[in-house]
Amino acid sequence: MDSSHRPIDAPALLNEIESRPLAEQLAARSTYDLLRRMAEQDEHAPALTFLPSGAEGEPIIRLSRGQLIGRIHQTANTFHELGIGSTDVVSTLLPHLPETHEVFWGAEAAGIVNPINFLLRVEEITELLRAAGTRVLVAAGPHPNLEIDSKVAEIRSRVPSLEHVIQVRSAPDAPIQPGILDFAQIRDAQPADRLLSGRNIDPGDIAAYFHTGGTTGSPKLARHTQGNQVFTAWSFARLFELGPRDVMLNGLPMFHVAGSLICGLAPLSAGAEMVILSPAGMRHPNIVSSYWRIAERHRATVIGGVPTALAALNGVPLEGADLSAAEVSITGASPLPLAVGRRFEEVTGKPIHEILGMTETAGLLAVTPRRSLRILGSAGYRLPFTEVEIRPWANGEIGPSPCPPNESGMLVVRGPNVFAGYLDPRHDRGCRTSGGFLITGDLGHMDEDGRIFLTGRAKDVIIRGGHNIDPVWIESAAERHPDVHLAAAVGEPDAYAGEIPALFVTPKPGATLDLEEIRDFVGRHIAEKPARPKSVYALDELPLTTVGKPFRPELRRQAAQSRLQRDLEGELGRGNFELRVTLDAGGLKVHAQCSVPEDTDKAEALLTKLSMPFEVSTG
Q: Which CATH architecture fits 462-550?
């Protein structure tokens, strides 16, 4: 793709793609098939480059397409020899390493992969392993900055189905505990030229279980089919015109659906080179401080990251770094604050395209094609061969037919990217319409050209800088407090992270709530720092739906009202403005009226940092 070409019309591109049957364009039946076909085209072309820390001059690891598919063969054969079949589960507790790709795609070639966030607590990881019925666990060995090996030591005896634990060494001399297998040793004993199982992988076979919240008590494991993942990778590569001349920087972990599929499988299967930005990704301080030089050294054509990463990069001077190879930036996982997006485009001189996806759509639902004009604030266009509609939504009820253009409602989707349902069928209740559309929980509208704009969420999950937080984690901790009767956690708007957790509590009869003490109590009982609430509010009663559940959109409105009231008071002074946050089918909207005309610019500057529609007036 030559970036000097004139922009293309996205609706016309979708029509062109859909003019031929999908089966004619997408011959691969599995993720293994995708990677094998690309290796057969040019086995010597680079596929994967690993940067241990991003430091200039450090030794790097580079695998060609042929080397990668050979390692995938060896890893799949290892699992086959350990008894893994098409319905058996291999779980992983791994940072982002070259071996993580070998294990991930090798596990999908042999059976089902279950990538787990290694930052979760032992109890949560154990519940996920039990729910998945894990037979093989592949985990990182002792490492000075990770605690994975100590967690594995506690977990091993708690999962009845677990038969084998395999360790990926962090260093050649890292110790191997008794009863644990050495990944490199057992992998290298296997043939690299074929799958010993002879498995004929079907597109309908389950490829992966991704956890998506609910890791306490009853984990939610979303089932991806091989066809789901193949379609997602093909769609993104097709719309973004990825090919052998591309180099994509990947700073996301593989337990994140975008890290494995959008920034992983899509470039790898299209013949592009993927650069892994350290085991910790963008959480590594040197990666952030060296990002522009890394992009320059590797001639990256596709750059970007989650919104919090972009905000951090906005503060890093270019210092003459040559970004001429970069053609486009991408972001996703949480809404992009407009101020962050505008500043990133000013810093880089590259257009930034938002990507909309969720675990239940195999990581992708909408995107603006690479050569289409982007509009900041829009998540782009639907994928080819999918149906995306905006349905009327009020008080938890979804209408039967689409809204007219520019009218707000609930986003629903149907197509080859939509997952096969949750492993526990109880979690499937209420997640689809009667016509089979997946209810995303996102509120928004669609313009006349089909561009999708999100304005809020009705679903429960809190997304802090791309990190999914199940409110149950927070609520369970809060309800252990002796003075708390009921608790509900929602997202509160934040200029940096998109949203941060806020907690609403009601008192037990006769109790008096000390909100600071409750916040400290809850924080001590939640291991993950991102999930600890920043604000705690007291209510006499929680707003409820007709079936008695907390009505979270109203709680989000109240949290936004309180947060913005504090922020504007700090900027304008108390009594110099009136603020209203309203809720309708389009989500939340902010109305601010300033008593002094000069204050309107200050109010607009503050509100622009948030991903919320607003209006400011003087009166």
A: 2-Layer Sandwich (3.30)
